[in-house]
Amino acid sequence: MTKKLNGLGRRVLTFPAVHPCESISPSTLLISLIDLAHDICTYKSEFFSTNKRNALKAVRQVHNLLIFLEELRVESADIPGSLVISLSELHLTFQRIRYLLEDCTREGARLWMLTKSDRVSNQLRLFIRAIGTALDVLPLAAIDVSSEVKELVDLVMRQARKAIFETDPDDKRVLNDVIRILGRFEDGIRPDKSEVKRVLDYLGITKWSQCNQEVKFLDSEITIEYLNVDKRSELALLSSLMGFLSYCKCIMFDLVDNEASQQVSKKCCNNMLGGLTPDDFTCPISLEIMKDPVTLSTGHTYDRASILKWFRAGNSTCPKTGERLQSKELLVNLVLKRIIQDWSVDNGVSIAEESGHKNRDITRTVLAGSLAAEGAMKLLANFISDRLLEGTSEEKNKVAYEVRLLTKSSIFNRSCLVEVGCIPSLLKLLSSKDSSTQENAIAALLNLSKHCKSKSMVVESGGLDFIVDMVKKGLKVEARQHAAATLFYIASIEEYRKLIGENPEAIPALVDMVRDGTDRSKKNALVAIFGLLMHSGNHWRVLAAVLATLAEKLDGTIAILHHGALDMIMKILDSCTSRAGTEYCVSLLLALCINGGANVVALLVKSPSLMGSLYSLLSQGSSRASKKASALIRILHEFYERHSSGSTTPVLPQDRSVHVW
Fold first, then answer.
1. Organism's domain of life (predicted)?
2. Which of 124-133, 231-240, 297-306 has the highest mean pLDDT?
3. Contact at 8 Å (CB) between 145 and 72?
């Protein structure tokens, strides 16, 4: 009849108890009530960061009643109907007590529950008195239980009537410490670390993962509170507490422990999350992480919104297999949905809920939310800037990760970190040999690039070359796709679209990512290319890069040569004054030689200006261009030597003859 919750799906300090239905049998009601009492008694061994004395007092009262209820089940074969009213009221109150105990022991909500200590103690007092009221109508004399048990029930009844639940003095003291620290933040004064540590120790927040869990909880509460347009009384306090814990997370903990991810892995399909990537969760249609995965009769899974759009367009096939569907029934993939949710929590990825706020509005984060939150973030930004400049490699990696988290969905945080000059330091971390440092730095830059002032800072700091190099050579696929997305945001400025296009490595690297990358990488690269195409001068560059990629395949080479493009490419190369243009042409010619064989090479050898362009690239071009120029020179020299000696040995290892015209 009842199910023990884990705090998820219910806002803290709400008690959605359900009154037992009138038609329920007394024996069924009694069994359910005993189950509830057992659940409540298990909290005796739980950790209470606040309101411990009051909570355990309530647990003891329920335990005493459990003795009575269990004897009633054993001794009374036929439970009189007159008990139903009393048992029903007890059932309702027990539900509420259990909800409150869940909140008091909920990981991630400890600081918030500290601020609600007075309310919690008052609620416990009301619930215990409700037990007394329910026992008042209990026909104890008509019940067949031992006299000792009747005396115990009478004791509970008397204690419930005069129950006193006062806020724990220690809770009050620590709450005053928190208020004092928030006051220092408002004044722009860095609080004493020993005082901050006392608060964290009292709450049992001893690891980075626990502190991060608190931040995520407060963030979700702020989102819910913000949606409540008519009543936003808690916003300032929630924002202040979040600022305090964000400050603690970065300054008070030297290591980012992975305990949280290990816990998620245990919950989720026997460590299955360990080998999963975002691509495992993307919809084949939208290439976005699925919010509501549903499965077709073919066994393939799609995001509900995407597959419904596919059907509305008149399609009746499976998008992946092309198989005609006998039924358009959609089965909710609950297992995958839970895995995606757990993975998102583990990796700090925000997946928009299917409720009324699909796309989270972060415009509210233009301001900090409170003076204390503003002061905490400004102090934290200065700390991060100093660590990025002077910290050890491990410290720089850690604060880069903190920047990544802080700037994910907060405009104010981005502004603070840009203002203190974090961008040049993060750009330097892109050359790190540590894959984690690289990924955290480029992810942080991606978030910061959404801020209006950051784009000029990236460019003026010489960051474009670093980011393009990351697209090509990032140590992790995630770093490469973050770099592509960063280029897209920088390309929102017309002047910078031109600068990116003039980098001879940028567009080819993005085209390569479209060809070889993961689904997420392909999407980021395509979006970046689209942004660059907003500048007309990049049109030919993108076209040249695409042609060079097509020419790497035999079919592409045949198509290009069939349309007489070789002569046009040679003319462009002869007249081109741009280094990037020269490199694009050489890349295309090399691919045509490799796939086109001797007929193509024979025509290139006749060009009097080609060798000059190639040798110029050897000394002045990029590393990529130099390699391609060197390869093409070698092919031309080998052809010339064999042709002069009359040798019939193929010029290329796998010479393929293609009609040039």
1. Eukaryota
2. 124-133
3. yes
Rounded distance between C-alpha atoms, residue 634 and residue 378, angstroms: 58
Tokens of 233: 């009384």
CA nearest neighbour of 632 among 657, 610, 650: 610
The fraction of the chain above a pLDDT of 90, given in percent, is 50
Q: How far apart are CA 73 and CA 81, in angstroms?
A: 14
Q: What is the pTM of this model?
A: 0.77
Alpha-carbon gap, residue 164 to 121, rounded angstroms: 9
Q: Which two tokens stand for residue 289?
A: 């992480």
pLDDT score of 347: 62
What is the number of alpha carbons within 13 Å of residue 456 lying toward its C-beta?
A: 3
Complete DSSP assignment for 194-250: HHHHHHHHHHT--SHHHHHHHHHHHHHHHHHHHH-TT--TTHHHHHHHHHHHHHHHH
Q: Which two tokens stand for residue 224?
A: 């819910």
Give the confidence band of 180 by pLDDT, cuts at 50, 70, 90.
Answer: very high
Identity of the amino acid at 53: R
Q: From residue 391, how far is each of 5, 129, 350, 397 by CA, in Å? A: 44, 57, 30, 9
> Residue 584: which of 634, 620, 613, 548 has the closest Cα?
548
Spatial contact of 541 and 501, defined as CB atoms under 8 Å apart: yes
Q: Find the helix or strand (DSSP H, E) in which 464 lies.
A: helix 463-473
In the chain, the amino acid numbered 196 is: V
Distance separating alpha carbons of residues 598 and 602, to the nearest angstrom: 6
Banded pLDDT at 25 (limits 50, 70, 90): confident
d(Cα 368, Cα 243) in Å, to the nearest integer?
A: 8
Q: How many CB atoms lie within 10 A of CB 272?
A: 13
Q: Which amino acid is at 77?
A: A
What pLDDT, in 10s, does the model give residues 128-140? 999 999 998 888 8
Interatomic CA distance for residues 439 and 498, integer angstroms: 26
Matching residue, tokens 């290439």: 287
Distance CA 379, CA 398 (A): 17
Model pLDDT for residues 356-392, shown as the tens digit of each residue: 334 456 677 888 999 999 999 999 999 999 999 999 9
The conformation of residue 324, written as its DSSP 8-state character, comes to B
Segment 425-437, tens digit of pLDDT = 999 999 999 999 9
- Which residue has 């009844």 as its token pair? 157
CA–CA separation, 213 and 194 (whole Å): 22
Query: How far is the C-alpha of 141 from the C-alpha of 77, rounded, in Å?
Result: 16
- Distance CA(608)–CA(636), nearest Å, equals 12
Q: Where are the alpha helices (DSSP H) in 391-476?
A: 393-406, 411-419, 422-429, 435-448, 454-460, 463-473
Specify the DSSP element, H or E, that contains 455: helix 454-460
* pLDDT single digits (tens) 490-548: 999 999 999 999 998 999 999 999 988 888 899 899 999 999 999 998 998 898 888 88
- 381: its two tokens: 């930004």
Backbone conformation region of residue 7, classed left if phi is above 0, alpha if psi is from -120 to 50, else beta: left
DSSP structure class, residue 410: -
Give the other-Cβ count within 10 Å of 375's Cβ. 23
Q: Which two tokens stand for residue 580?
A: 């990037």
